[in-house]
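Suppose a colleague, Dr. K., hands you the sequence of a protein chain of 331 amino acids and asks what its three-dimensional shape might be. Before reaching for any lab equipment, you can write down a predicted structure in token form. Begin with the sequence itself:
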Amino acid sequence: MTSTNLIEIHLEAQGAKPNFRYDIIQPLVHGRVPIEGVSLTVAGSMETAGQFENPKFKNGDFGLLDTNVGDILPAIDAGWDMVALPVLIKRKPIYNYIWVRADRGIETPKDLEGKTFATAIWGVVTTYARGMLKQFHGVDHSTFKWIANVDGPWPLHKPVNVEYRTDKKPQWQRLLDGEVDACSGDIIDPNAWDILEASPHIVKRLFPDYRQMHRDLRRDHGIVTPTHMMAMGGKLHRENPGLSRKLYDAFEQSREIAIADARGDGSSYNLIMDARELMRDQMKEMGDIYKHGIAANRDLFEMTLDFYEDQGQTSRRLSIEEVFAADTLDT
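The predicted structure, expressed as tokens, is then:
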């Protein structure tokens, strides 16, 4: 096949600085997973897809987009021309992101009812936190009052008791300052973790045994929560039948190579001593917890779609068939 016959696909990421450092995508990004008939280029560090401000994403005029689950589902609900691939490019456990004041009498999840929460934005971490508190701990999250910095790009379809602040203070700082009783949401500032963990007389984790709880969630429900997923432009999808499955297979092959690298001590990540042994022990205990595809993640996807409808972040309960490319439904 000559180069003129190649399907040219540009891989972008939501946000100001595309981040393709995820270990499971490295083999694909670095050309170790060729895709027959496809020329894949990767966004450079100075490129940006924006926060869904570029109309090409609404119109389906793009290739592949690594973006937040909390944007893909509302976008599809709103009729944007895209489909998702069941490629969970980034996952984060959730229980460790729920922090509470140590002086407000919060000892159990149910003690959160009627309390004030802080979050930065209605992101996927906060969505999972609310949903899991309700589903697994019987908490009525409709009783929460919220303080948030921005309302995000998507409308809320159910009422929420929320106050938006203009000072843009991080949610964890509001907790430390005593403005709120609890906080949830992503924390990427390493100094924030250090401060929170060094202040047990002021704040504490709601779930001190969060690491075991994450393992229990995997063992009992097959769930390891994702934050980012791969979206595919609608035009590219319609014009190239079968391409979505070919791309899915490439991402899955890349993930398998990355696992083999880690198990063979060939990973490029050298900051964790005995990383190979930790990876070996994790797989021995929990199996292949990062597998892509519908079958391995069906319960997770169904739960996620339930959460988004229940919390009003989609106008209705979407189905797996509406969200994911048809060629990937049997993965």
